[in-house]
């Protein structure tokens, strides 16, 4: 699902909770599994990067910094508070995913009027920092949020955008794992199983993605996302 249309976390995160994994551990485990799959995607897109090295390194550094802040914030959040936040986190991610195409169209229109030089680097850095903190704390919908930052860099090639999403996403999810490991909040059996499944799905989907209509998958993901959001609002 992530490879074809995105939104896999709307299934994997609730699945962990439904099988008895505590919310914070479920979030950390889901983050770990996603990171392994994103590494595979980043490797596949490594040749599509096309931006000034200084800007790329800056965004990577900010992503690492924000990711670790977000993960530490999660660890210092009590289990009861995080459980109460889950419906709102899922709702925000669901809305971002649902209206992602509209956001993408608007951003592409805006990017035609913007160039990397016309956008203050401080604004880009601040936006990526906020996105990275969110990604380290929760993560669902992270890719679409990063699209905002990347679009205002003036990047118009979809492969280049996907490359940056993969690299920066792997930075955010990867650095967040370090505090999770030291805190012992990763359910490793589930994380390994999900990582293998996610990696195989990402690799095999290259064949099936040509046969499936992404919009059909997106509609299914949106249905699941709203269903999960409503469920956690009712039973949270």
Describe this structure in words.
With 236 residues, the chain is mostly helical. The chain has one domain (1-235). The protein is 78% helix and 0% strand. It is built from ten helices and no strands. The protein has helices spanning 9-18, 23-44, 53-75, 79-98, 100-111, 121-137, 142-151, 158-183, 188-208, 214-235. The longest helix is centred in the last third of the chain and has 26 residues, at 158-183. 43% of the residues are buried.
Number of domains: 1
The best one-word shape is: globular
The proportion of residues forming helix, as a percent range, comes to over 70%
pLDDT < 50 runs, ≥5 residues? none
What is the multimeric organization of the chains shown? single chain
Name the beta content range.
under 5%
If helices are DSSP runs of H or I spanning 4 or more residues, what is the number of helices? 10
Task: Sketch the topology as an H/E string, one letter per element.
Answer: HHHHHHHHHH
Q: Would you count the extended β strands for me?
A: 0
Largest sheet: none
Computed Rg: 17 Å
């Amino acid at each position: 699902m992530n490879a074809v249309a995105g939104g896999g976390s709307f299934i994997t995160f609730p699945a962990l909770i439904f099988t008895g994994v505590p919310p914070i551990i479920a979030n950390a485990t889901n983050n770990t599994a996603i990171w392994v799959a994103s590494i595979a995607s980043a490797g596949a897109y490594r040749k599509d990067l096309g931006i000034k090295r200084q800007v790329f390194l800056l965004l990577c550094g900010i992503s690492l910094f924000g990711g670790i802040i977000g993960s530490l914030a999660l660890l210092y959040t009590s289990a009861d508070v995080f459980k109460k936040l889950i419906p709102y986190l899922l709702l925000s991610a669901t809305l971002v995913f649902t209206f992602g195409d509209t956001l993408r169209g608007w951003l592409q229109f805006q990017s035609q009027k913007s160039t990397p030089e016309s956008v203050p680097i401080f604004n880009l850095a601040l936006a990526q920092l906020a996105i990275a903190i969110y990604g380290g704390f929760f993560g669902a919908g992270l890719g679409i949020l990063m699209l905002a930052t990347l679009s205002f860099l003036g990047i118009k090639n979809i492969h280049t955008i996907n490359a940056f999403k993969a690299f920066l996403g792997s930075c955010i999810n990867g650095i967040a794992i370090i505090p999770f490991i030291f805190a012992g909040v990763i359910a490793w059996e589930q994380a390994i199983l999900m990582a293998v499944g996610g990696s195989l799905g990402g690799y095999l989907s290259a064949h099936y993605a040509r046969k499936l209509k992404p919009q059909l998958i997106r509609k299914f993901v949106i249905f699941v996302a709203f269903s999960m959001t409503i469920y956690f609002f009712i039973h949270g």
